[in-house]
């Protein structure tokens, strides 16, 4: 097989991954405004797509190592080949589609890291992965981030309700949070485009350098930026109805004040972490803040079963995509024949998943017909007693 | 190897940012309501997550807003002050959002 052919293949796969990334992550920004009725689903998804496209162009600073030092590539380290990136991408894409089919919010970045780690371990050896970096940059943030953002969203929600409280019988103006939601969710979408499109640009640039097409140490070329931006935007627009269902409806009934608090916490956490050079998963942050803000409402209780299911998806993502990446790498090592086997197996799995998805198709038209996912946060209706007591309170 | 301080900084910064923005916007809404201009924003579409808002219920909401506006204990000056306060809160919120965009784009601060 020609060396440049594998480069072309990897670029195509990277774009497919970028597409599934957008497809998978629409819900992070747009589930809550859709759930509160701040925006129509079509408008929300369209806005998310545009902002992802814009976001991809805003920042072109790609980290020198795409995996953030997880794989010891570069000077004095191991030599990463296009075949390994190829295998890692196949693992990441397959896992992204499986979680999409199950309607679980799982992290696309973790799928990419997992796929690359698995492929590197099989393709090069155990020494190729820096496990300290995996622990510090992937596993610990994955445990801590959803908890901290949950606490932040909880406090923000309590504050929003506390400040806007009125004696009953009078308007509290909380519907006004719907306007704010348009902006807060846009900020989440924009930062997503900036962060996640960068990862694919990094993968493609790394491949071009490994393939000898581009000089070492140079940034992504303009066409790479353009195609990555387009892939993530199209993916965002096309997808995510299943996950929107889990997050905006399956997770918790979202009220405007709560949705705004959740989105603000998500945006603040993503911005703070990327500003301090800290890789966080957008999906985990968004899920954590939706749960935290739900708990901030009066009479909220947790549905632990659903929460456990989501946590399981997070825990599984890294090892599962690593195993898939490892399998793909095992074949890829056989040479051209292995690459063809990989491609065929990969497309077979993807085709099977799509066929299963077709059987229970969910679009924005029948979004509210299906209800199988439980909700993490159960909200009790406000008891009348409390309402009567509140009436005596004199508000400003 | 593990940078615990970074975790603390991220948590602190996101808590501060969210609390400031959410408080400002909520305060803006509160002052707007006090000024007799409670916002009534009906949902754009009906998903499973929101209670279906019938036209009757929507009319009731609007009536509530009018009632709140008419039965307002504040004087004209106080109302005007509340309105100014509300708009200042919203402007500060917009400022915070723009700062967020500024943080996203490295070209602006490097």
TrEMBL record, chain A:
PANTHER family: LOW-AFFINITY INORGANIC PHOSPHATE TRANSPORTER-RELATED, PHOSPHATE TRANSPORTER. It comes from the Bacteria. This is Phosphate transporter. Belongs to the inorganic phosphate transporter (PiT) (TC 2.A.20) family. GO terms for cellular component: membrane. It is found in: Membrane. InterPro entries: Phos_transporter. GO terms for biological process: phosphate ion transmembrane transport. Keywords: Membrane, Phosphate transport, Transmembrane, Transmembrane helix, Transport. Pfam families: PHO4. The chain crosses the membrane at residues 45-63, 84-101, 107-126, 138-163, 222-241, 307-327, 333-354. It comes from Cryobacterium algoritolerans. It is a multi-pass membrane protein. One of its GO terms (molecular function) is phosphate transmembrane transporter activity.
UniProtKB/TrEMBL annotation, chain B:
This is Peptidase. Keywords: Membrane, Transmembrane, Transmembrane helix. The chain crosses the membrane at residues 6-27, 81-105.
């Amino acid at each position: 097989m020609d060396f440049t052919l594998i480069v072309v293949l990897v670029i195509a796969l990277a774009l497919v991954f970028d597409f599934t990334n957008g497809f998978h992550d629409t819900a992070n920004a747009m589930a809550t405004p859709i759930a509160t009725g701040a925006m129509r689903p079509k408008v929300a998804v369209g806005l998310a797509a545009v902002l992802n496209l814009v976001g991809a162009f805003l920042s072109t600073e790609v980290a020198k190592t795409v995996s953030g030092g997880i794989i010891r590539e570069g000077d004095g380290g191991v030599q990463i080949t296009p075949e390994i990136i190829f295998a890692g991408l196949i693992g990441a894409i397959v896992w992204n589609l499986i979680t999409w089919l199950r309607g679980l919010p799982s992290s696309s970045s973790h799928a990419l890291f997992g796929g690359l780690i698995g492929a590197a371990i099989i393709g090069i050896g155990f020494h190729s992965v820096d496990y300290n970096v995996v622990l510090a940059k992937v596993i610990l943030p994955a445990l801590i981030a959803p908890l901290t953002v949950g606490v932040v969203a909880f406090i923000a929600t309590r504050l929003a309700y506390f400040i806007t409280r009125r004696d009953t019988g009078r308007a509290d103006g909380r519907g006004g949070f719907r306007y704010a939601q348009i902006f807060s969710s846009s900020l989440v979408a924009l930062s997503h485009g900036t962060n996640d499109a960068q990862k694919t640009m990094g993968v493609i640039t790394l491949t071009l350098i490994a393939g000898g097409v581009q000089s070492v140490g140079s940034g992504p070329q303009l066409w790479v930026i353009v195609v990555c931006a387009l892939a993530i935007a199209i993916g965002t627009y096309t997808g995510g109805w299943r996950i929107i269902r889990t997050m905006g409806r399956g997770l918790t009934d979202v009220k405007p004040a709560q949705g705004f608090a959740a989105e603000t916490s998500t945006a603040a956490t993503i911005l703070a972490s990327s500003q301090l050079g800290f890789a966080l998963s957008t999906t985990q942050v968004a899920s954590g803040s939706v749960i935290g803000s739900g708990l901030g409402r009066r009479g909220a209780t947790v549905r632990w079963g659903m929460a456990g299911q989501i946590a399981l998806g997070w825990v599984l993502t890294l090892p599962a995509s690593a195993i898939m990446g490892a399998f793909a790498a095992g074949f890829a090592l056989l040479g051209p024949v292995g690459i063809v086997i990989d491609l065929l197996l990969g497309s077979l799995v993807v085709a099977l998943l799509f066929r299963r998805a077709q059987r229970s198709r969910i679009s924005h038209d029948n979004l509210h017909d299906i209800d199988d996912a439980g909700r993490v946060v159960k909200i009790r209706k406000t008891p009348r007693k409390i309402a009567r007591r509140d009436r005596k309170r004199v508000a400003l | 190897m593990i940078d615990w301080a970074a975790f603390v900084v991220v948590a602190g910064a996101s808590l501060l940012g969210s609390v400031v923005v959410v408080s400002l916007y909520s305060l803006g809404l509160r002052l707007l309501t006090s000024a007799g201009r409670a916002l009534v924003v009906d949902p754009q579409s009906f998903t499973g997550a929101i209670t279906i808002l019938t036209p009757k219920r929507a009319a009731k909401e609007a009536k509530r807003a009018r009632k709140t506006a008419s039965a307002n204990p504040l004087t004209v000056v106080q109302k005007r002050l509340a309105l100014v306060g509300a708009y200042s809160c919203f402007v500060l919120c917009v400022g915070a959002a723009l700062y967020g965009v500024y943080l996203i784009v490295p070209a602006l601060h490097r």
